[in-house]
Amino acid sequence: MKRCHRCQKELGITDRVGRAETCPSCGTDLKSCKNCAFYDTGSYNQCREPQAERVLEKERSNYCDYFLFRDSSRNMHTQDKKSDFKGKLDSLFKK
Prior knowledge:
Elements: E1 2-3, E2 10-11, H1 72-93
Antiparallel strand pairs: 1-2
């Protein structure tokens, strides 16, 4: 399931995303770093793809050849695991 990073509306995308495509709900650019599977705020240049060129405006459309639309169901599963792990750690160290 693919979702817009800004409004979180589900998108019916099955093909590659073009540079000029926008979210039908909020109008934000879809081919942007924040919608990419390689986007990671903890990585160098906020991208896990080492060959990608630096992009300064992460919410704007760009020409990156490595763009891969992020799968939100996989991302949500990762977030659930993180929050579950954090809850276990908190309970372990509480008095």
